[in-house]
Amino acid sequence: MDEYDYDLFVIGAGSGGVRAARIAAGHGARVAICEESRVGGTCVIRGCVPKKLMSYAAHFGEDFEDAAGYGWQLGETAFSWPRMIGAVHAELDRLEGIYHGLLDGAGVVLHEGRGVLEDAHTVAVGERRFTAEKILVATGGWPWVPDFEGAGHVITSNEAFHLERLPGRVLVVGGGYIACEFASIFNGLGSETHQVYRGDQVLRGFDGDVRRVVTREMAAKGVDFRFEALVSRIVETDDGLAATLDDGSTITTDVVMYATGRVPNTRGLGLPEAGVDLRADGSVPVDEYARTNVDSVFAVGDVTHRLNLTPVAIHEGHAFADTQFGGRPRATDHEAVACAVFSNPQVGTVGVSEEDATHHYGEVEVFRSEFRPMKHTLSGRAEKSLMKLIVEREGRRVVGLHVVGPDAPEIVQGFAVAVKWGLTKEQFDATIGIHPTSAEELVTMRTPVPGQR
Fold first, then answer.
1. Could you check whether 6-142+263-325 and 151-260 share the same CATH topology?
2. Average pLDDT across the chain, whole number
3. What residues does each domain of the chain span?
4. Backbone angles phi, psi at 321, to 5 degrees
5. Of 81, 83, 228, 286, which residue is 20 to 30 A from 306 by alpha carbon distance?
6. What is the pLDDT of residue 2?
7. CATH code 3.50.50.60 for 6-142+263-325
């Protein structure tokens, strides 16, 4: 008779948890998973997928304008928020159904409800209790809103996907990728868009040139930035929501959306009661194999607050399952992981920024090109793209690659392989570019920016 109900019990059916459950089951483990919301997690249900679909919608306004430069004569256009949001949610329903099918096909038992650890081998889901040899925590993160007067009036990215109508005026608070993406979406769909951020440029932590170009281009497209500012209070008025900034100025808007960061979703999970250590921010510290300080409890994904990206969570979940149930111990390599920002303009990046490069690699050379994409020579749009390489001077490896402009994430995905595996600038130079493309700039830049470290 088995000592436990399951070999593995996963708390959280998001991308990392589902991958871990499926792979472990494929290795022959008896696996269960629980979810208190919808299967698919943040990325599929309230994050990457619906956000990118909305980003596609927001780009059509510019596409219609650009078409005139290419000889197209368009009639009157109109946008329907209910029609778009209905189509988005229909796609999310389809994807959730696929996730259910994947779990079922792998033989993973789904328990609907919130999972709470009662001890190192027991999970309570409502009134039911299940034991497992190993427990994996994959509960992700949750939007964080500071406490201030009127905070009850704000929405987060979670609620943005459920607005009944397109707001005429939107105030986005924050300067990270989520804030920039939603500011670009609302602006592109026609909302009067303001963005308040405590810093002097958006996208803190990204390469300085990326920050500069994105800030410049978003402002040129109509986003009203208020930098080095905070919202001190929000009150409801006859004309909407009045947000007072700490400099005394007021922005009146229909919706205030906070995108000021996300926190690990560990509150009330029973982790301390089960003996699992937590950091001050609520995240779960783990080793390279996803192990916590408790031998039977593991964690992957955003709940560990290492590198909060969906593909990273999936990779961590897969590696965990291979290590614990497949007899193939392996760790996730978090170096040189590519990422994207689906703002307008888009960003793709892999490796280190110019600012961080010297701390990691000593002296570097920087290659940079800013230019108007070929598409805009006829459309007349003044928008410029950025291509940038950071090269380790001694070893000549390309250690940072940054792109801002159309299709930046698609471009960087391919180049990420080259950066990940340590190709040199000379190997980039020896690669013949595809002409005419924007991406060919990355293999044709020959002259470094003068005065580099």
1. yes
2. 96
3. 6-142+263-325, 151-260, 345-443
4. -65, -40
5. 228
6. 76
7. yes
Catalytic: 435?
yes
- For the chain, percent helix, then strand, then coil, each to nearest 5? 35, 25, 40
Tell me which of 89, 111, 121, 435 is the catalytic residue.
435
For 50, the token pair is 């619906």
> Is the CA virtual torsion 179, 260, 336, 48 positive or negative?
negative
Q: What pLDDT, on a 0 to 100 scale, did the predictor assign at position 452?
A: 64
Other C-beta atoms lying within 10 Å of the C-beta of residue 165:
10
Residue 240 has pLDDT above 70, yes or no: yes
- Element (DSSP H or E) covering residue 225: strand 224-227
Residues 6+ apart with CB under 8 A from 258: 143, 145, 146, 154, 155, 156, 173, 174
How many Å apart are CA 145 and CA 136, to the nearest integer? 27
CB atoms within 10 A of CB 396: 16
Q: Kindly report whether the peptide bond that precedes residue 409 is cis, defined as omega within 30 degrees of 0.
A: no
Pairing mode of beta strands 255-258, 169-173: parallel
Q: What angle do CA 259, 260, 261 make, to 5 degrees?
A: 100
Please give the model's pTM, rounded to 2 decimal places: 0.96
Tell me the CATH number for domain 151-260. Answer: 3.50.50.60
Whole-angstrom distance, CA of residue 33 vs CA of residue 108: 7
Dihedral angle, C-alpha 173, 178, 180, 182, nearest 10 °: -80
CA contacts within 13 A on the Cβ side of 327: 3
pLDDT tens for 86-139 read: 999 999 999 999 999 999 999 999 999 999 999 999 999 999 999 999 999 999
The third-level CATH classification (topology) of the domain covering 345-443 is Enolase-like; domain 1 (3.30.390)
As a whole number of angstroms, the distance between CA 170 and CA 196 comes to 11
Judge whether 174 and 181 are in contact, CB under 8 Å: no
Please state, in angstroms and rounded to a whole number, the distance separating the CA atoms of residues 223 and 242. Answer: 18
Look at residue 451 and tell me whether its pLDDT is greater than 80.
no
CA–CA distance, 101 with 25 (Å, rounded to integer): 14
Residue 1 has pLDDT above 50, yes or no: no
The set of residues, in sequence order, having a beta carbon less than 8 Å from that of 217 and lying 6+ positions away, is: 344, 345, 383, 384, 404
- 406-430: per-residue pLDDT in tens? 999 999 999 999 999 999 999 999 9
CB atoms within 10 A of CB 367: 22
Three-state DSSP class for residue 12: coil
